């Protein structure tokens, strides 16, 4: 087999066989296929696509390029949840304890944030003392005991994806549905769960800006999951505005705890219940959606989900007194209002710009080794469909400097305010099974 023939085959729109995909991944990892040939193949895939079978084989060989986590020592049906990334997404802190309270073991590996989206691990580190690194034995023990553990990604999971992603990043080939689907699913499958619930975000703050593309990505990932013997469900959820009202690290943890305390942060609670419902159904805990939502709501309202969160934080060395007194979480030196310069109703929000504004404050990273400031962030006071008068506060910046003019402008420009009344956004667009 020659790589040049495979590049030509894909360039001409033909399908690659399992043996050919295996050859590509194995030889790329063995460094007998150079970056320039793989780049050419990625560009051919970008233009010609891959069918579902090719995408599943690509995923399979990326999984086989490294370790697979063995979760067999954890009792019960393990369900993982993964979000394709958004702004203000703190659902893991609600969904994790909620399904744990329902009796499902959640053994979760999460990432750090890069660019306009935050990372679960960074957010957890805003809890004083919280340890995101556990030994394998501790990880398994915590899940068996408390039904929930969240750690930073360890081990050599899907190293072919890591290398391929770095190459795609610099060759303008990230934005290809089969390549994104195989990249995400290779890591999820290597992480060892029996079932996977995917939160595919759609809109201005998401990877996929249109519902059509989000649906294609969701369908592709669900098919890969099934072909590789994992029950997989994808929820397509709104990311045309940040999720909830808080963007940052400590302030996102705070907002999630408030939902666990029973506060109705509407879009956040709705999405968390939706994701948790599908996780519990896949695990066979509840027979149907209505029963699942009913029982899970009860676990929030009776405090069991909040208790599960406290148990999880304590088991990973976190100071749980901050959960009882949220003001003890890190905070910023200055709190600056961003005022509206027009009046009417909020029609649109550029969620990505809000995420970038939070990153500039120090809540996220522009580069991989940037340091996170856990206390800074943004609180939104207005979201889509809200009425706004000139001079109203649109958002509050929590910042450690007093020169924030560019960030204030960025947030003001992220709002589109028009005269006509508008309806609230749909939160859940579709469920792909
Ligand atoms: N996230 C991933 O893990 N991979 C992609 O290709 C895109 C987003």
UniProtKB/TrEMBL annotation:
The keyword Repressor does not apply. Keywords: Glycosyltransferase, Transferase. Its EC number is 2.4.2.2. It comes from the Bacteria. SMART domains: PYNP_C. Homodimer. Gene3D superfamilies: Nucleoside phosphorylase/phosphoribosyltransferase catalytic domain, Pyrimidine nucleoside phosphorylase-like, C-terminal domain, Transferase, Pyrimidine Nucleoside Phosphorylase, Chain C. GO terms for biological process: pyrimidine nucleobase metabolic process; pyrimidine nucleoside metabolic process. This is Pyrimidine-nucleoside phosphorylase.
